[in-house]
Amino acid sequence: MTDTFEFTGEFLKEAERNIAKYPEKRSQSAVLALLFLAQEQNHANGHYVTPAAIAKISEMLDMPYIRVMEVASFFTMVNLEPVGNFHIQLCGTTPCMLRGAEDIRAAIEKKLDIHNGETTKDGQFTLTEVECLGACCNAPMVQINDDYYEDLTPEIMVDIIDRLAKGESVAPGPQNGRSCSEPEGGPQTLLTGPAPQVRS
Question: What are the binding positions for [2Fe-2S] cluster in this chain (predicted)?
Fold first, then answer.
C-alpha cells in the first residue's frame, strides 16, 4: 500500500470525463465511477482501492472521506483489500443456494484450500461470498473478475479453476449449453403457430 495516489494517463482522462458528465454541484455523482477507475489502475498491485485513493477521490469531488468510504464499503465490486488475479465472487443468495451454491463453495474451498475472504498462497485466487449478482435463473453462478459463469456444478467449477490456473481462456456465461437465460432444454413455447401480423 502506498501513502499517495494520483490518477494517471487514460485513467485520469476517464476520471475527468466522468466528473464532467454532472453539473458542478453534483460532481459527487461520479464517486462510484472513480472508485472503479482507481481499482482498475491498481490492478497489478492487488486490484483494490487504497485509503490514499479514497482520499484523492474525496479531494477531487469535494466530498468527505467518510462519504466516499460509505459508497466503497457498500458495493462488493469495490475491493478494499488486495485480491488475487482471479477474484471468485460466489453468489450465496436464496436462488443460488437452492440450486447448489453450497456445493459450489465446498468445491472451491477444497480445490483451493481457502475459505470465504481468503486468497491462495500464490496470490492467484480469492474467494468472496456476495449477495445476489442478478443471474438467478441461471443459478448457481459465480463472478470471476468481470465475467459471469453460470449453471455451475462442482465438477464444472473445478474445471474452470484448473483452466484459469493454466492460463487458458474460459468462455463466460452458461456452462451447460444453455443459450442466455432460456429454459433448460431450449425454448418451450411459441415454437409453432401462424406468422406474426405486422401492422403498418
Answer: 91, 96, 132, 136
pLDDT for 175-186, tens place per residue? 998 888 887 777
pLDDT tens, residue by residue, 40-70 = 999 888 899 999 999 999 999 999 999 999 9
**Angle between the N-to-C axes of helices 65-74 and 31-41, in degrees from 0 to 180, rounded to the nearest 10:** 70
Q: Total structural domains in the chain?
A: 2
Q: Is residue 154 part of a domain?
A: yes
Angle in degrees, CA 52, 57, 70, rounded to 5: 90
On whether both 158 and 91 belong to a single domain, the answer is: yes
Separation between Cα atoms, residue 49 and residue 43, nearest integer Å: 10
Q: Helix/strand/coil (H, E, C) string of 63-131?
A: CCHHHHHHHHHHCCCCCCCCCCCEEEEEECCHHHHHCCHHHHHHHHHHHHCCCCCCECCCCCEEEEEEC
Task: Tell whether 103 and 168 lie within a shared domain.
Answer: yes
pTM of the predicted structure, to 2 decimals: 0.81
First to last CA, the chain: 63
**Owning domain of residue 29:** 9-74
